[in-house]
Amino acid sequence: MWVCCALRWSRTAARLRPGLLLSAGRCSPAAASYSASAEPSQVQALVYEHHGHPTKAIELKNLELTAVGGSDVHVKMLAAPINPSDINMIQGNYGFLPKLPAIGGNEGVGQVVAVGSSVTRVKPGDWVILAHSGLGTWRTEAVFSEEALIRVPSDIPLQTAATLSVNPCTAYRMLMDFEQLQPGDSVIQNASNSGVGQAVIQIAAALGLRTINVVRDRPDIHRLTDRLKNLGAEYVITEEELRKLELKNFFKDVPRPRLALNCVGGKSSTELLRHLAPGGTMVTYGGMAKQPVIASVSLFIFKDVKLRGFWLSQWKNDHGTDHFKELILTLCHLVHQGKLTAPTCSEVPLQDYNHALETAMHPFTSSKQIFIM
To answer: Which ranges of the sequence are coiled-coil (predicted)?
Structure first.
């Protein structure tokens, strides 16, 4: 059932369709249907009616929740993080954009309050996450279609559940899909302190892989190094050390990585390529430096390196919801085993959204901002 529901503003004729996905001309299963009234309600949402700087585009709105239909699920949102993709979407420079006005947030966990008469896969009390991006998680309550939801165990930590469907999924797929790695093999990555980077460290350790983790130098570098090693990082080095370090001796004891994970671009990605094993692959999934990936001709001719890209939304489109559910269950199993935890998070009330957005965009941020409803 594909439904495109709307939000009616009493003061304008604007229509909000938070359930629409404009990727490849397809729309996602519908998000909630709301009508806004002049009287404030208990349902609040962070809404943007135009693209721009997030703190200027986002507003906290009072909304009225509509009735639950036969295949609908009333969800009370519990927690929702701020990811770089959320920021990019508000700015208007992401791979797909919801129709405006839209509710911010692509990830989060909620608890089922009530279900429609034809709902069979979830029940009141269950914890659920969203199967699709662009549905708007920065709100206190919502009505989603059943097919837009994935049930997750309610005995995992709240922060872990809220941050499960983007960064760890990206990390797992990149580790599994591009090179046939075996225990003892090594992986090199930049942006190792990011949400994806922390997930890569933990999942790689669970798979018996060794990680070489590159980070930007900072005043608290020793504290960061200790934190990443506590997650399972075997090596943590700065970008400057990677450029200056004589690594011949280093790679006598550590196999050259066959897989490099790039979220930065520019010089940082060039350094990752330089240390790849012959025939190795670099996967780019972000561009924090806003600079192109530059590879010398000799790397292609004499080392036969491969450059690939990864976007989780495209992977989900290609593989379908059932495969995504299997991936979520695999990650939940790692959580239950104590092998996967949430990235370092700072819990923020929804009302403090401006501060949270500013912090999320600040360089060297070591903690993911997460709205607690």
So the answer is: 221-248
